[in-house]
Design goal:
Two copies of one chain form a homodimer.
Chain A (H helix, E strand, L loop, with lengths): L1 H10 L3 H10 L4 E2 H8 L3 H13 L3 E6 L2 E6 L8 H10 L5 H15 L2 H7 L22
Antiparallel strand pairs in A: 1-3, 2-3
The structure holds a DNA duplex (30 and 30 nucleotides).
Chain lengths: 140, 140
DNA sequence: GTGTCATTTCGCCAAACGGCGAAATGTGTT
DNA sequence: AACACATTTCGCCGTTTGGCGAAATGACAC
């Protein structure tokens, strides 16, 4: 059905959601890690992840208080794999994506408990622009 | 740039525009032919075609009063070819697309001058649901 | 049970969007 | 120049969407 195509096409047509998919390409992430890199409100990230999940592009698991998301492995939407492949093949040299990756490396280097307590200020001081602070998260 | 990706991604995330691209895959079409198949207002089709053109997915030529659109041959947007390929590979069995193709064959069988004068009523009577009538167009 | 924490849902807001009719534009005919 | 025709642009309208803060929910610790 064209509506199925539309669902996943619309999910990948938003820049924030594309950035999330590119981050997840490096492996499973906790919501707060995505929140820190994208510098968006947790509510916003949660809404975006819900849209990606509904489109069959990502899967979720819970571990206590924490929610982890990863790129979909199972075929949940007939077009999901095609769109994921295309997103994966594109934007390899995009500056926004490159900056996100740089921040993600920093984020992964910080124990999540510290990251969640301090948000971006937990990262190397010279590494981050002045942006919103967020809530804590546990050790990975 | 991610904005370039976004432009073409958004252009292909609308069902009407996907239907237009699938119609154009069969060859160049005049605006009124697309209008007749999609049963949309000419203004709406024109707006959609403008978005596809801005995204580098289609090209236009004029012939007197008439405007023809075709899928882009030149690389006008770094992601256009990828998206066109994907749209081309998908929805092969979609009922909406199949119906559009059926109507297109009928539309192509009618001289454009007749088509433009009578709109859908120029098609075989048993072939079309009761829908809007549109303005005329010339012999192809 | 109470309080803390991470996430999700809800409601609001401004912006974007797809549809339409009307007006404007460009082309062709007389 | 006036008129007809095909298309495009404009403006309106209702709907959708991405952002946020606040409230709700679920998990954990005491």
């Amino acid at each position: 059905m064209i509506e199925t195509f539309e669902l996943v096409a619309k999910a990948t047509a938003d820049p924030s959601r594309v950035r999330i998919l590119k981050l997840l390409a490096a492996g499973e992430l906790c919501v707060c890690q995505i929140t820190t890199v994208l510098a968006l409100a947790p509510a916003t990230v949660s809404k975006h992840l819900a849209a990606l999940k509904a489109a069959g592009l990502v899967q979720q698991r819970r571990d206590g208080r924490w929610a982890y998301y990863r790129l979909a492995e199972r075929q949940l939407n007939p077009y999901a794999a095609r769109f994921l492949a295309m997103v994966g093949d594109c934007l390899g040299d995009d500056p926004t994506i490159a900056e996100d990756r740089r921040l993600l490396a920093l984020v992964r280097a910080v124990p999540l408990q510290v990251l969640c307590a301090q948000g971006r200020s937990a990262l190397s001081p010279a590494a981050t622009p002045t942006l919103r602070q967020d809530a804590p998260c546990p050790t990975e």
